[in-house]
């Protein structure tokens, strides 16, 4: 049974994702990445605790070797007493250099330390807390084994026609101004999947029905997820009339697809849930350069 992430937890963060990672700890949406910073302030170092409880242990752990990051990370293990049904579970938190120690009591929102980068990150990934939950008697050190998670908040799927204007860039990404959050700060939103697979010609945007919210790295990670109540348990999933893959439960196995921007391939799309005014499609493009103000059209094409 999935553990619900309550609004009291998620509302502390600008963004979250269950699937936007290549690591097995996220398989099936069994971990959540919590982003305190906005899309334009992705390197913030603030690390507010998602839970209240007592720190069981902190330790330094090995990370995959990458030329742009240290080969170590930090693990914080907290025995939770809240919020909500998280009480009596154990939280496993990564990517924070801790200023807390074993035996310390923390309240939700207290600083755990400083967000750091490690070899678990791709260059385009912003600073975040990686959090998983498991029963108190489970091994807290294994990467896999955490309980599946379910967002306990409203997530509004936004229709997107695949176009937008670049409003921010980094060395490996560009952010578009669309789709825009209809009411920033009020609720989480995400790019919505088409509710049913289109047949024949691409439907006009006004004729498409929007389903659940897409989550994951398309297609640079193996798969993604579909969040929110408007989803089915099995079947094809598409975006703006382009088929992405097949849904099983809430997990999507991507087809062999290529994301193009203005007709040329890019690494992919970063799909997540956000609640602030800077929401928009995030293009992962370490091999392409875009400039602020440039109009971009995105398509999903099947490779071969």
Automatic annotation (TrEMBL):
Cite the Pfam families for this sequence.
DUF8155, DUF8155_C
InterPro entries in the cross-refs: DUF8155_C, DUF8155_N, Dup_hybrid_motif
- Show the stretches that span the lipid bilayer: none
Its domain of life reads Archaea
| Domain (DUF8155) ranges | 4-150, 156-301
By what name is this protein known?
A: Uncharacterized protein
């Amino acid at each position: 049974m999935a553990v619900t992430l309550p609004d009291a937890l998620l509302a502390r963060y600008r963004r979250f994702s269950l699937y936007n990672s290549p690591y097995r700890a996220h398989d099936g949406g069994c971990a959540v990445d919590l982003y305190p910073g906005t899309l334009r302030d992705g390197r913030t170092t603030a690390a507010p605790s998602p839970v209240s409880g007592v720190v069981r242990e902190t330790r330094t752990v090995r990370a995959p070797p990458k030329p742009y990051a240290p080969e170590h990370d930090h693990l914080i293990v907290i025995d939770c007493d809240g919020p909500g049904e998280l009480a009596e579970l154990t939280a496993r938190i990564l990517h924070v250099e801790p200023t807390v120690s074993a035996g310390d009591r923390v309240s939700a929102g207290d600083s755990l330390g400083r967000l750091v980068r490690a070899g678990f990150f791709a260059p385009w990934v912003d600073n975040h807390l990686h959090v998983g939950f498991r029963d108190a008697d489970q091994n807290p050190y294994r990467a896999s084994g955490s309980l599946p998670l379910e967002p306990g908040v409203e997530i509004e799927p936004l229709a997107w026609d695949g176009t937008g204007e670049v409003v921010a860039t980094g060395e490996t990404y560009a952010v578009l101004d669309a789709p825009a959050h209809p009411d920033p700060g009020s609720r989480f939103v995400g790019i919505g999947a088409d509710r049913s697979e289109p047949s024949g010609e691409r439907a006009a945007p006004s004729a498409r029905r929007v389903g659940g919210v897409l989550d994951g790295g398309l297609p640079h990670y193996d798969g993604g997820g579909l969040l929110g109540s408007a989803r089915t348990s099995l079947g094809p999933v598409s975006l703006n009339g382009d088929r992405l893959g097949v849904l099983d439960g809430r997990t999507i196995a991507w087809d062999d697809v290529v994301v193009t921007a203005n007709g040329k391939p890019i690494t992919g799309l970063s799909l997540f849930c956000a609640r602030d005014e800077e929401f928009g499609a995030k293009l992962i493009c370490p091999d392409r350069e875009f400039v602020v103000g440039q109009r971009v059209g995105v398509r999903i094409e099947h490779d071969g």
